[in-house]
Amino acid sequence: MPDAVRFLQIVKRAAVDAVRAMKPVEICFGQVTGISPLKILVDQKLPLEEKHLILTQNVTEYKTYISGGNVKNFYYRGEPMGEDVVELEPPHVHAIGKVQITVHNGLAVGEEVILLRQQGGQKYLVLGRVG
Predict the structure, then answer these.
(1) What is the pLDDT of residues 35-56, one digit of tens each?
(2) Which fold, 1-59+105-131?
(3) What pTM does this model have?
């Protein structure tokens, strides 16, 4: 009977090793160490360069469109933005349609990111920021 138990252990270990050898998809964490070119250090030991990274819209600067109805006009008179914004006199509204905007969502040095390692381990999908 001990031979059967040992045989099962060997088969199980071989199966686990086979799965590891295929390098299945894995979630990992990294820290941005450079922007131009983009560099991310994974698990404090594996430096990744831009050619290894696939960026999602969550971590890039991109253009998109917004639309809206009537928007009240305000007049801005200085710094900082939140403290010195006053309503125009006399007040009025503008109807706006579809407007293109830029979302400034690019990564910055020091930010922590969540990555998904592609099967085979050659490419990493940058899913988003941690926190």
Answers:
(1) 999 999 998 888 999 999 999 9
(2) OB fold (Dihydrolipoamide Acetyltransferase, E2P) (2.40.50)
(3) 0.64
